[in-house]
């Protein structure tokens, strides 16, 4: 397996695609975005290895976000490659209009619930307009959690890791006695994947994401190959760090409610992240909502309409906390 680094002009952070070309077939994990620059980069990387888009037999997609699936349709059109993804994301990847209409309606419901200002809503809707997406979309064959595939001497096993996206999966790779993962956006080396905003279809997003991270801690893989940036040599340590990060963020959410009194998601987001621009207008309140929703189910906060307040006794617990972390159950 070879890592191919690709630019990402549509979103943040350069992308990775992973090529299997040393064997009987040519396979790819993720494709990068759909921009012409990315297409040219990927074609050039293929040329260096004496393969072409037309040679690709199979494509495995970690999740539906366009910076991971953008060229899947074009490659499939040239090669007839089978494109695999989780069923929770398949319709979006295929460009199904009903799926996209439902997604956009759900986004609008949450924007209103979070009390996102109308101007910011319009900024986001313009940025995320469905028309600004890959022209060629693939036909998807679905896989399930636990499904296994063999690729040029690698044994690949699908692990469903919902949270950042509903159908997000990582791929365990066993090869030469080692087990590594292609982690997609489950585990990243620099920043923490957004939960709550990146896919508003996910129910209990923080709980699901924390469980996915704990699974990585427990498995103690030897290396992670992420969807963005450099490989991670200590996946368990990185996953544990992100769990701690979310416990610190939950403390900050509770501290905001303690200082500000009852308030809505947008106000909590502003306290945590300040003024936001671009896609962060979605990610800030989405992340805040994921924590508020988790804390509400735990009985730590109480929701009244679109506002949240601390449950009885929580302010005293906060005051007695020394390390500014709030333990989370998942």
UniProtKB/TrEMBL annotation:
CDD domains membership: TTHA1429-like_MBL-fold (cd07725)
The keyword Hydrolase belongs to this UniProt entry's keyword annotation: yes
A GO MF term: hydrolase activity
Pfam families: Lactamase_B
Keyword Protein transport listed: no
Metallo-beta-lactamase domain residues: 14-228
Alphabetical UniProt keywords: Hydrolase
PANTHER family: ENDORIBONUCLEASE LACTB2, METALLO-BETA-LACTAMASE SUPERFAMILY POTEIN
Name of the protein in its database record: MBL fold metallo-hydrolase
């Amino acid at each position: 397996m070879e890592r191919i680094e690709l630019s990402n002009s549509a979103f943040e952070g350069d992308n990775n695609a992973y090529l299997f070309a040393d064997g009987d077939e040519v396979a790819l994990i993720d494709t990068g975005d759909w921009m012409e620059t990315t297409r040219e980069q990927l074609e050039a990387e293929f040329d260096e290895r004496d393969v072409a888009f037309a040679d690709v037999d199979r494509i495995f997609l970690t999740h539906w976000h366009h910076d991971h699936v953008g060229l899947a349709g074009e490659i499939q059109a040239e090669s007839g490659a089978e494109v695999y993804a989780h069923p929770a994301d398949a319709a979006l990847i295929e460009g199904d209009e009903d799926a996209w209409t439902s997604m956009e309606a759900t986004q609008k419901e949450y924007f209103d619930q979070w009390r996102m200002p109308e101007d910011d809503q319009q900024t986001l809707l313009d940025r995320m307009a469905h028309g600004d997406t890959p022209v060629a979309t693939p036909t998807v064959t679905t896989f399930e959690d636990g499904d296994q595939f063999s690729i040029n001497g690698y044994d690949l096993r699908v692990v469903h890791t919902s949270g950042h996206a509903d159908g997000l999966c990582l791929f365990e790779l066993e090869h030469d006695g080692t087990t590594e993962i292609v982690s997609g956006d489950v585990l990243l080396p620099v920043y923490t994947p957004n939960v709550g905003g990146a896919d508003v279809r996910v129910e209990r997003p923080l709980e699901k994401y924390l469980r996915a991270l704990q699974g990585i801690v427990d498995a103690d893989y030897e290396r992670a190959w992420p969807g963005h940036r450099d490989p991670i040599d200590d996946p368990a340590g990185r996953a544990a760090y992100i769990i701690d990060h979310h416990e610190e963020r939950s403390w900050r959410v509770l501290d905001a409610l303690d200082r500000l009194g009852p308030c809505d998601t947008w106000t909590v987001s502003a306290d945590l992240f300040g003024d936001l621009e671009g896609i962060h207008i979605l990610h800030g309140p989405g992340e805040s909502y994921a924590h508020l929703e988790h804390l509400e189910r735990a009985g730590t906060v109480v929701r009244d309409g679109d506002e949240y307040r601390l449950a009885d006794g929580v302010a005293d617990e906060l005051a007695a906390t020394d390390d500014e972390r709030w333990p989370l159950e998942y």
